[in-house]
Amino acid sequence: MGRRLGRKQLGAAVGGLLAAESVYIAAHIMPDGDAVGSMLGLGTALSRLGKACTLACADPVPPKFDYVDGFARAVSPPPTTETVTISVDSSDIERLGSLYDAAIFASRPVINIDHHVTNTGYGSINLVQVVPSTAEIVLSLVKRLGVKLDRSIATALLTGLVTDTRCFRTGNVTSRQLRVALELTRSGASLAEVTELIFNREPIATVCLWGRALANVGRRGRILWTEIDRRLIGECQAAPNDDKGLVSFLASRADVDVAIVFRETDDGRIEASMRSGPGWDVSRAALQLGGGGHPRAAGCTRPGPMASAREFVLSRVAECLEAQEAARAEESH
């Protein structure tokens, strides 16, 4: 999972896809722009090669991404008779939600395309590279497949890149991501349009949800947190992922090292989304809690109720921060 994709794995993926008659592409639950853009961009590229593509996500694709070609094609049933299964932007198999069927996944090649450092390598072919977005890995695959970039593919992949870098503001952005963006814009994508649609087009339900959540922010030392339960989601008539971006907003406040948003799911479990400031690694705590992610953007899911899950996660994250601080102090001596 280094800076470069393994040639053997990439070659195996290309060979398998060129030989496949039909492909099932699965995005993770509560899909963000990287999952959506990677799924739709790869689906469009494979369709250009004459492949029958099923695009799937267990949760509805957020309406804000309706400008990406293929948006209306996304379905929710698990795979059936497709030749190859692809997962995009999912660090582990559980993130696929109801799309995962153990028997079906075991019966055919599974190509795991992802950029999370905590990826479990669950595919028979793993295209896993620690870069800012999964869309970058998909771009490499599309080019190896010999598909010419066009506006549809480029717009989808730029959506993924812009979303996961917060418009090139995350600490892992290098000149490589700027070159990728240049290639995608030269292929027909509009950076101005994509940025506007991702960051400046939020429904009223999101405004309601954020307002209520911000009014209930709590602080535990260097950790800023808030919670969103099912009652609040219902009162705001919000969609499952209308809180996206809230945790990053909290993490950008002064004098805060980590921000956490706790969200209650329909089945009563508690999802904890974590973001950290420079120099702090929340993926360590997320792994200990059964989750995963990136050093500065991670998460986990815990059993409810809210109060007990919140206290458990807050205590573990605090311990993790203390351990990192102690390690730094030891290194400095």
If you had to describe this structure to a student in words, what would you say it looks like?
- The chain has 333 residues and is α/β, with parallel strands linked by helices.
- 41% of the residues lie in helices and 17% in strands.
- The chain folds into 2 domains: 7-199, Alpha-Beta Complex (inorganic pyrophosphatase (n-terminal core)), CATH 3.90.1640.10; 204-332, Diaminopimelate Epimerase, Chain A, domain 1, CATH 3.10.310.30.
- The protein is built from 12 helices and 11 strands.
- A 6-stranded mixed β-sheet has the order 6-7-8-9-11-10, sandwiched between helices. A 5-stranded parallel β-sheet has the order 2-1-3-4-5.
H/E element sequence: HEHEEHEEHHHHHEEHHEEHEEH
The average pLDDT value, as a whole number, equals: 94
Q: Tell me roughly what share of residues is in helical segments.
A: 40-55%
Radius of gyration: 20 Å
Sheet with the most strands?
6 strands, mixed
What is the count of distinct domains? 2
Number of helices: 12
What is the CATH architecture annotation of the largest domain?
Alpha-Beta Complex
Which topology of the largest domain does CATH recognise?
inorganic pyrophosphatase (n-terminal core)
Structural class from helices and strands? Answer: alpha/beta
Assigned CATH class of the largest domain: Alpha Beta
What's the CATH superfamily of the largest domain, by name?
A: inorganic pyrophosphatase (n-terminal core)
Taking the alpha carbons of the first and last residues, their distance comes to 32 Å
Care to count the β-strands? 11
